[in-house]
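Predict the 3D structure for this chain.
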Amino acid sequence: MRPAPRAPWFRLTCALLLSVGCAGSPTEPSGPPSDARLAGLLGSEPFLALAEARIKHTPGAPDSLHLFAQRRIRARNTVEYLSIRIAVAGLGTYSLAESQVILTEVSGGDMVYSEREASSLAPGTLTLSALGTTGELVVGTVQFLLSPADGRTPHPEPVAFTDGVFAIRLSAPLGTPASIR
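Done. Predicted structure below.
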């Protein structure tokens, strides 16, 4: 008997994980809530996501910190992918502009349902209180306002991400052999 073919959502999920550099499983791990998580409120809904942090070194430019988060919403058969990217020069508070925060919602496993980005109406902030080297914790807070990035978003009103906190072990830098799996 032949095994059942894998669903399109499986291939898309794997492709998305590879494209954003997430090395985790698409399902919720059994680790404690403080282990590689980004948490907060998206609108009035609690937001708890798997997370990964990486530094990208670019010659002649400031290093950039990339935070990736993934949240599965089983009741809606949806996965949300959050990407936050900042030029980083150490600990402190950073302003988040439009292209630095993107939330993509994939529905049914194979369709981008909506895409939102940081709103130009109110810049968000990300505060780093700890930033170590590979294997050490990146700790901080984040908040921002999201607006639809395109006309496909079914709910055009802005939505706030508030009370965001993260404590994530820094993975191998982007572009190094250890970060390519």
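The first strand starts at residue 37 and ends at 42.
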